[in-house]
Amino acid sequence: MAETVTPDLLPAAAPVQHQQDKPESDLEPGFLVVCWNDPVNLMHYVTHVFQQVFGWPRKKAEFHMLQVHEQGKSILARDSLEKAEHYVHQLQKYHLHATLERDE
Amino acid sequence: MGHREKDLFLEVLAFYPCTPPAHYTLSRKPGVPNAEAAQHLLDEALAEQREQNRKLLQQLMLDFARFQVQPTGLRLVLSEVDLEWLLQVLNDVRVGSWIKLGSPEDSDLITHAFDHLTDEKRPVLWAMEMSGYFQMQFLKAVAGG
Questions:
Q1: Is residue A22 part of a domain?
Q2: With an 8 Å Cβ cutoff, is B109 touching chain A?
Q3: Long-range interactions of A63-68: CB distance < 8 A, separation 24+
Q4: Is the reported ipTM for this assembly greater than 0.95?
Q5: Between B5, B95, B104, which is nearest A95 by CB?
Q6: For residue B8, what is the nearest residue in chain A, using CA coordinates?
Q7: What is the C-alpha radius of gyration for chain B, rounded to an integer number of angstroms?
Q8: Nearest C-alpha in B relative to A92
Q9: Does the residue A18 lie in any domain?
Q10: Quick one: what percent of chain A has pLDDT higher than 90?
Q11: Which residues of chain B does A82 touch, with a Cβ-Cβ cutoff of 8 Å?
Q12: Distance in angstroms (rounded) separating the CA atoms of residues A21 and B82
């Protein structure tokens, strides 16, 4: 196989953030974003996704990735229902095994 | 990448979409308000993403200018946005292939796959491994390595 040349990357536009008015209950923290371990998602990929979705620096993303890998899961965020749902949607778009759970 | 590598890359992408929609569940335990509606919202969002990624893939496969000819082979030019949806597509193929192989939980995934390999499963194992290979190549590019 020929030597692999890594793709060139062009800079992207900055992400746009939106805020909406919501009932107070939806804004109260009380829901967890949990990422679960599985044997198929690559560790480097998981780290990258955490950086993308949460805007974390690499070290923090790696910490949570290793928690998933070694402890079977990691709680990535504790937030309002709306925000937690948003994060789970984003993580599942990357096909990570992530779920929304009520904080008990 | 070499010309053969480009062909392999496009062959892997052709497996998309691979992960069955039923694989995605919003929550593992009860306690989420309006759980059914929330699950439906997730299903819709992912279906929309699949459709969008399918269109982007079609464009990529027809856009030969993306693969610039170099003395050593081909250079694939991607924006950071392109990279992200391609990573999502590749992981869909990887996870979907794993599911088709029976979602083995063994620590040595490949050994398990080979132990239970059939003619039908052989291309699925290939897709799972090759999608992982290209994921790592793109992630190296992101890291600047």
A1: no
A2: yes
A3: A64/A35, A68/A35, A68/A36, A68/A37
A4: no
A5: B95
A6: A1
A7: 17
A8: B24
A9: no
A10: 69
A11: none
A12: 32
- Tell me how many domains chain A contains: 1
Q: pTM of whole model > 0.80? A: yes
Strands A8-10 and B73-79: parallel
- CATH number for position A72: 3.30.1390.10
Contact of B79 with A9, CB cutoff 8 Å: yes
Alpha-carbon dihedral sign for residues A41, B140, A91, A60: positive
Question: B9-39 pLDDT, tens per residue?
Answer: 999 999 999 999 888 899 998 888 889 999 9
Q: Which residues of B touch A10 (CB under 8 A)?
A: 77-80
State whether B46 and A85 contact (CB < 8 Å).
no
Task: Identify whether A19 is part of a domain.
Answer: no
A chain contacts of residue B91, beta-carbon cutoff 8 Å: 41, 45, 94-95
Task: Determine the pLDDT at residue B108.
Answer: 63
Question: Which residue range is the domain that position A58 belongs to?
Answer: 27-102
Strands A31-36 and A98-102: antiparallel
Which residues are CB-neighbours of B124 under 8 A, at least 6 positions away? B97, B100, B101
Asked whether residue A46 is assigned to any structural domain, the reply reads yes
% of chain A at pLDDT higher than 70: 72
Pick left, alpha or beta for residue B51 (phi over 0 → left; psi -120 to 50 → alpha; otherwise beta).
Answer: alpha
Selected residue of A1, A3, A5 to mutate for chain B interface (largest B Cβ count, 10 A): A5
